[in-house]
Amino acid sequence: MSKKETTVREPYFHIVKRTSIPWWKAWTIRILAVVAALVVSGLITVLLTGEDPFKVYGTMIGGSFGTPRRIWGMAQNLAMLLCVSLAVTPAFKMKFWNIGAEGQVLIGALATTACMIKLGDSLPTPVLFAVMIVSSIICAGIWAMIPAYCRAKWNTNETLFTLMMNYIAIQLVSYFSYEWSVPKGSGQIGVINSASQAGWMPAILGKPYLANILIVAVLTVLMYIYLNYSKQGYEIQIVGESENTARYIGLNIKKVIIRTMLLSGALCGIAGLLLVSGTDHTLTRNLAGGRGFTAIMVAWLAKFNPFYMILTSFLIVFLQKGATEISTIFALNNSFSDIITGIIIFFIIGSEFFVNYSIKFRENAKEDAK
Length: 370
What we know:
The protein is mainly α and 370 residues long. 72% of the residues lie in helices and 3% in strands. The chain starts with 12 loop residues before the first strand and ends with a helix.
């Protein structure tokens, strides 16, 4: 008996990872993805609500840029999201999956709040600010170092570790919110030092958020220099690409992991400081507002480039502000605005596939099809 011969056909197409792509082509793909997302969102808007999609988009723009106050509020939100994104960038570039930025921000905010409540009336303003800065950086840095040390020492799962520490931080904030509540037992701290404004970030040129924006702008430049032109930034890149290579060239991987997470936690501590001292002037368990998780997407979309993060942070904040305005003006359910935001973000994330990969068709696919 003769064996049946089987012919193996090549697939009609296959996916190939791009080695490089011109910057203009990459941004063209992203812009086309945004346009496609707006078209799809417009169709869904007409089908579900009957509203004019152009009017809806105009409302989104007005929600972010309609008044000077809205513009400054958006700039402040952009700065805070960018600050947390800068914090998670070194860890993620090292492939240390720090999901605990939310908790690290809360710990930094808790340290700042403690200094403002306990020392606000007894220390001169410059000394108070120095104590607040040092306390927030040290506390948040140590909080971030705990999972880093366990990963370096016992190879624990940093994703679960940092995630679970978020819940511990939330409960700590809830406990002290009750202990320092005004009036006692209300569970809410209220505005801290509302009379003396001790520990409040000063208004620059009459703008209460300008100090936050300037500080984050400086941190953005410093982070870019650190990642691209410093020895430690080079070590982060090597460890992220291959721990075996890093070990072969003599890098102390444990030291790099712990040091990088200390930096990540310290920047989260600064974000907590700015939120309490410069923005909200109070502390709640929802102070971080999900920025610790959103920052991961911001950093990832920007390819861990601090300057590109300005654009991705702007996009996310714009969509959030615009979605809230849609729900208010058109009296729509909040879920609808979330749907529009989700569609746009989905298309933007999906465009990264075409930036990083290309589809190659088999040369004789058309003849085979005939």
